[in-house]
Amino acid sequence: MTTRADDPAAVETIGVRLKRLRHERGLSQRELSGPGVSYAYISRIEAGARTPSVKALRMLARKLGVTVEYLETGRDLRDSDERELRIADAELELRLAENVEAAESKLKAIAEEAKQAGDLVSATRAGIAVGLAASHRGNHLDAVERLEEALDAQPVPVAARPDAYAALGQSYAALGAPDRAVRLFERCLEEVDAAAAEDSGTYIRFATYLSYALGDAGEHDRAKEVVRAALARADDAGDPYSRVRLYWSLARVAGMEGRSGEALEHIRRATTLLEATDHNVQLARGYLLSAGIEAHEGDAAAAREHLRSAKKLLGLQAEPVDRGMLAIGWSRIAALEGDGDAAVEYARQAIATLGDFYGGEQGAAVWALAHGLSVSGDVDGAHATYPRAVDLLAVHGRRHDAARAAEEWAATLREHGRGAEADTIAERAGEIRAADSAAARAR
Asked: Are the beta carbons of 400 and 257 closer than 8 angstroms?
């Protein structure tokens, strides 16, 4: 084993270290000696004239109260163990530090170092950590690249790293590839079911992810089947969060299909369960989803209360996607109250916060901007903005919302005497709805 040039252990030979440890423990060479390791042999080691055998190292390390590794190299950990320690430290830094760039740089360096050393376990763990960090900040393209590379190099059981597989599938969906997310989560669900049938919590977790992906892919009937099958298992699950996930999945599917009342009922069940636990971020997201439904139903007061609850639970460290959804909610409320300028400002804040990621949420933010421009009287601005909203929503599996946005766009044009243009847009809304229905029948 070698030591790095900047390692203090590199300047202390094994003989010097043996003598130092012996003196620190108040032992003479004769007292340290034993069968097969004479005091003369110890003297020659300390003088640098002999290299101890493995048997001698073990005996001396035991009597000195140190590891063989430390006696031989001056370090308590093997290289792989030391890497694992550095990875764990960097993972904590990623979760706790305000500026995560330094931690990501460390992990990338460790991953490369581990690859060069043939330490695939550490390389995989470091690569997964970098991928999770990229997913957390919304860089889903980088997340997919990192996570695929790590999981391909060293296959990891789903049950061992569910967070890695969840992030990979969610990044697929965020990049507009829900079909890839569906295939991944189907494989994960099969593996979990085959490997640990009693692990209902992990099974339910991936059933929920699969239902989300199916919903994004427009396969609403299959999404409901997956959730209902998992609900049967949830009765035996000790974690109430499992049931929360499932109710949330049902709400999401109902919302995509325009059944707001049913979606709210499932959200209320999920919220009630979450309030009995301490999953603040997930509870906040439940409130955000409810606020969006209430705003679309025209109830500004109820939407406002839900947003206030969400904001309080999220605190100051909210993720970009959550802050973006908050801003979209405030934009919708402002539009309901006739304050077009405020609606536009909130929508622009949402777009800036979401950046180039979270495609479906980006579509919702652009839709809110178009609606705000319409309310403020900027019909030309709204007319120029609605197309991007409709496209984003449709591409990211939110066809029901895409059709609604197109219908709202047509209504805006018609209200301002632009009937011919409105008719064309209304036809497009009908085509989106028809395509969605046809896809559902085909499935």
From this structure: yes
